[in-house]
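In response to reviewer comment 3 from the previous cycle, which asked for concrete evidence that the modeling workflow produces usable outputs, we include below a single protein chain processed end to end. The sequence was submitted unchanged, and the resulting structure tokens are shown without manual editing.
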Amino acid sequence: MSAITFPNSPSAGEQHTINGITYTFTDGTWVAVGQSNFYTLPIASPTVLGGVKSGGTGIQIANDGVISIATGSTFDTNDVDAHLNQSNPTSGYVLSWNGTDYAWVAQTTDTVYANTDVDTHLNQSNPTSGYVLSWNGTDYAWVDNAGYSNTDVDTHLNQSNPTANHVLSWSGSDYAWVDASSLASSPIPAFQSNWRIPL
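The workflow returned the following structure tokens.
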């Protein structure tokens, strides 16, 4: 059976007969007249001629029936490279954004957060043994990790040079060291009749 070749740009209702079968151009397609047995077109493959489906734009069909996609109708690898400004990748370069477009830059300390960046952020260029990281209210600070020492206790209790027989007391506003004998000479209050003593 020879291939069917229909006329180009047919008019509605136009007929064409080939191999004994008459076709009428109706609603944009050629329809066989008087045929009750319909032929199902197979799906095309690399070895079988048949029907295909395709979406998008830029599809072209050559005179020999070969379907091709016009240049620029798909977003391919070359388009990605062009969009990212990368025609010849350089080893070790990384993709960055310069504020207006993509840019490829060497992966150096400018693009990698290194140990020196951490040290600078934590205000530590030369660590001191035994120091610990703290926060002074506005920034990081390194302080001695000696803890609360005996000297701190003495300072808090106002005692730099203890005196024999002195005892710790409270003056009403701060700690004070007083002679114990002065406490013993304090008069004992007289018994009051309204005191209640449990038995």
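The first helix runs from residue 77 to 83. We consider this sufficient to address the reviewer's concern, and the full set will be provided in the supplementary archive.
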